[in-house]
Write a sequence for this structure.
């Protein structure tokens, strides 16, 4: 080996050893606070529904495990995730259809927007999915969806797939018999949060200390090991406190309309829309009509690794 007596020879010595001088990197590895890479974004249900309907005619379940439309954050270089740790997707099941059983290590949940008569089977228990309900599919639970009603059923899926990608923990398999045998029906189940129960809980809830909503209840504690769910209510004219958290969030509008101001930018929303609020973005909500949102966040992950920081900020106009 050459004598390492100059910077030039030092850097040459790196070659082939897969090492890099920490002082020499072009991009820093540490920075003072969360960077703005994933962007705040809103997907309009009104834009997506006609596309899902068309896919309903053009794409049947023989072509795809699920008829879903992924909400890809428009930040440069991103091909999949909605926020860093989670992905959201709209999904449609038409009358008489079945999405076969499979299981995967990613945790999943579904927030039902429209349509009755569709059921999800999770580890052998069949529960109906009704508008406003939130249904859980924990990691490695078998799940299939099927409709025996006469309404199209639309919902929003949220999964921790990007986190699983990061951690290299992906396993996935299809059920050998396509569907689980020996299914039992249940109306109430630990995996189902019913809309009427959520409404009743919100009616007696205290205003949350963080001021992010008029009323808030947590669904589960947390709902999934990696994802927390909070149902929030806003009365007409309500304006929430300016707030930021290191947790990445995906909001689904169950009912109502209004806007979210995030980093000074205004995002209008209405029923069925999905809003991505990445980590450490300051935001507040304003409701024009009585509104309900479900917030899915990676709070449990942030808490578990000691990285949950929240801040209620001085209200700015
Ligand atoms: O319904 O099982 O949006 O496995 C993505 C992956 C939904 C599901 C998605 C899935 C599902
Ligand atoms: Fe799945």
């Amino acid at each position: 080996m050459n004598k390492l007596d100059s910077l030039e020879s030092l850097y040459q010595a790196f070659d082939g050893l897969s090492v890099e001088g920490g002082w020499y990197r072009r991009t820093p590895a540490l920075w003072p606070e969360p960077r703005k890479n994933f962007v705040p974004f809103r997907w309009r249900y009104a834009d997506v529904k006609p596309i899902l309907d068309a896919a309903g005619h053009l794409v049947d379940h023989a072509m795809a495990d699920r008829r879903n439309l992924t909400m890809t954050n428009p930040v440069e270089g991103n091909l999949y995730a909605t926020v860093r740790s989670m992905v959201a997707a709209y999904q449609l099941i038409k009358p008489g259809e079945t999405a076969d059983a499979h299981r995967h290590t990613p945790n999943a949940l579904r927030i039902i927007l429209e349509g009755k008569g569709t059921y999800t089977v999770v580890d052998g228990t069949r529960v109906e999915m009704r508008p406003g309900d939130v249904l859980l599919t924990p990691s490695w639970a078998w799940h299939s969806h099927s409709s025996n009603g006469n309404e199209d059923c639309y919902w929003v899926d949220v999964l921790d797939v990007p986190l699983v990608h990061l951690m290299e923990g992906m396993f996935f398999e299809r059920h050998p018999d396509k569907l689980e045998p020996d299914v039992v029906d249940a109306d109430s189940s630990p995996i189902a949060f019913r809309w009427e129960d959520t409404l009743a809980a919100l009616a007696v809830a205290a205003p949350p200390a963080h001021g992010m909503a008029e009323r808030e209840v947590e669904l589960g504690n947390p709902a999934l090991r990696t994802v927390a769910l909070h149902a929030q209510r806003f009365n007409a004219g309500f304006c929430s406190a300016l707030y930021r958290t290191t947790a990445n969030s995906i909001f689904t509008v169950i009912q109502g309309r209004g806007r979210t101001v995030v980093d000074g930018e205004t995002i209008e929303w209405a029923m069925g829309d999905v809003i991505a609020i990445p980590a450490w973005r300051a935001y507040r909500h304003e409701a024009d009509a009585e509104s309900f949102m479900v917030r899915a966040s990676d709070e449990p992950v942030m808490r578990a690794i000691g990285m949950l920081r929240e801040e209620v900020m001085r209200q700015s106009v």
